[in-house]
Amino acid sequence: MNASHGARLGPRFTLVWSATAASTLGDGVTLVAAPLLLASITDNPLVVSGAVFAGMLPWLLFSLISGGLVDRLDRRRVMVAVDAVRAVTIGVLGVAVALDRSSVALLYAVMFLLGTGETLVRAASMSLLPALVQPELLERANGRLGVARTVLHDMVAGPLGGLLFAVAAATPFLLDAGSFAVSAVLLALLAGAYRADGQPGPPTAPRAPLGQEIAEGVRWLLAHRLLRTLAILIGLLNVTLTATMSILVLVATKRLGLGSVGYGLLFTALAVGGLVGALAGEHLVRRFTASVTLRVGLLVETLFHLAMALSTSAVPVGVMLALFGVHDSLWGIVTTSLRQRLTPPGMLGRVNSAYLFLAAGGNAFGALLGGAVASRFGLTAPYWVGFVVAAAVTAVTWRVFDRRTMAAAYAGPAAEPAAEPAAEPA
Predict the structure, then answer these.
(1) What predicted TM-score, i.e. pTM, was given to this entire model?
(2) C-alpha span between 136 and 357 (Å, rounded)
(3) pLDDT tens digits for 136-171?
(4) Element (H, E) at 99
(5) Alpha-helical regions (H) of 246-380
């Protein structure tokens, strides 16, 4: 990790960053507008929450398959094709809303299709990045992408989506369609071929069946001690984190005495912390090492649940959320960069998707767990469960993230990015 401060990420990364920024803004706007649209159709909480589940379900159904496909196809072409399809999909919803022909079923279908596309794009984009930048710049590149997501998705898209929906209900969805179209065009301008095998055309040698290749990627992840630990760890921590965040609105209103504005400010604190972590991530990881970053992150995760269980004032909760935002950004930078460094280029799609499958499983189970535990044992119960789980995970995995192990991971072989290739048609 001896990246020079003067080293540039390059024009190819700039194209990918710009495409990510465009689609991320649109994603965030739709994330706000979709519940508002549902609320205008029905007041049934289960129907409203069903849209979130519809968007999450593809991660459980298709993420492993998407990883296998990404390792077989040109990753840039996958992203271009998926963004083009997503532009049409969300555009259809926008037109339906404009014509007053929207329905719950249509919105569910659109959210499901968008989520399915996201399983492909996430796997492809994380697998594409090591071919664009030098290995020592991966933390910087992932940090820059994190800045785009935090600013545009978490800070700008929320108020913008609400404002556009108030002006005309169809506008946020049409904006999202435009953002996907812009992303597809920018990615189409990215020169070169980005197949996992490094070849510009279809493979000449026969390949194993897709299911066998997916299983190979899963086995590789589970056989790698460091990445296996991170994958299982994030799955467990996502259970408790999603469980606690799913009831945060009730904690804010009933325990902290906040209104809608105060509740929104809690997420602002989380986003501000995330932005700080994304901007300073490369420097902090280089200064304190990945070992310290991950270990401190585990402590922050544990203290977050404890503080939320004990606090009856909004101020410490806001501070803790901001600190958690910093941790979340740093954790993402380190773990994503490690997967990109340590995974063979030909398996990046499958390994990233297997990792995300475990994370999504934790999110899905946590969303069900939070309400059930809070209903049975009280609002603070999920936070106490989270504290116990995080403390146990910290104790069990502490030694895995020692300095020697992390130094060996960063010293290991990492794929060099491809030379600047000649342009080829999209």
Answers:
(1) 0.77
(2) 27
(3) 888 899 889 988 888 888 788 878 888 888 889 999
(4) none
(5) 248-250, 260-310, 314-342, 348-377
